Amino acid sequence: MSRTFDDARRWAELGTDVLLKAAAGLDGDAYAAPSALPGWSRAHVAAHVAANAEALSNLVHWAATGEPTPMYASPEERAAGIERGRALPAAELTAWLHSSADALARGTAALAEEQWRAQVVTAQGRAVPATEVLWLRSREVCVHAVDLANGVSFADLPADFLTALCDDVVTKRAAAPGPALALRAPATGAAWQLPGDGEAVPVTGELPDIAAYLTGRAAGPLTAEGAPAPALGAWL
Ligand code: ZN
């Protein structure tokens, strides 16, 4: 893993910008249309991203004060936030995307160096330094900007972010059952070995296509034999 704190800060800002632009001008009908995520409308995605910004602001509060404030009180609270948000009128949902992003940006801008090193716990139960908040936010805004299905694709995201995303997903997938893969994006020189069942299947393609495949957003590039890449389980 070679990403730095400054990388994650840059991607979080850029991704927030891309996401807000993708949501700008969506009206009620456009929000009600399907997103790229099965069973979710664009409004579900937007409400999830806004609620996630508030949840990450809880971690920033934790780092700033030492007072344990988890991202979500419970899985039920997390789901209820998405349901409330998606039912909002379009302009209010878009306003919530902006206000939650602004609040998170203000919170992180105010953290001192030693507060960034404070340990917090993610929604998945991982204890991490607060600096990881910027990476979690980068991942959310960049990937969900694509999920909004309003013109943003993985190819619009920076190559260094996509490489870091693939690093992250491969690490996570290596801990779960699945096929062994030898992934390569020759144009960038990036390669990943995903341990798993059977002999590693070579999957070679453009970096954005590999990222879309690994995150479960697309079927993925073909293998060297011209067969579809092996199906993968859910990522998160
Ligand atoms: Zn998410």
Structural account:
The protein is mainly alpha-helical and 236 residues long. It has two domains: 5-152, Up-down Bundle (Four Helix Bundle (Hemerythrin (Met), subunit A)); 156-236, Nonspecific Lipid-transfer Protein, Chain A (2-Layer Sandwich). Helices cover 53% and strands 11% of the residues. The chain has helices at 5-23, 28-32, 42-65, 75-86, 90-109, 113-116, 132-147, 159-174, 207-214; strands spanning 119-121, 127-129, 179-185, 190-194, 197-204. Helix 1 (5-23) packs parallel to helix 7. It binds zinc ion. Zinc ion is lined by residues 48, 52, 140, 144.
Which architecture of the largest domain does the CATH hierarchy give at level 2?
Up-down Bundle
Find the CATH superfamily of the largest domain. dinb family like domain
The helicity comes to: 40-55%
Would you report the number of β strands? 5
SS class: mainly alpha
The overall pLDDT average reads 95
Instruction: List low-confidence stretches.
Output: none
Global shape: globular
Distance between the termini: 19 Å
Overall CATH class of the largest domain:
Mainly Alpha
Give the ligands present: zinc ion
Q: What would you report as the Rg, rounded to the nearest angstrom?
A: 18 Å
Order of helices and strands: HHHHHHEEHHEEEH
Q: Could you name the CATH topology of the largest domain?
A: Four Helix Bundle (Hemerythrin (Met), subunit A)
The tally of structural domains comes to 2
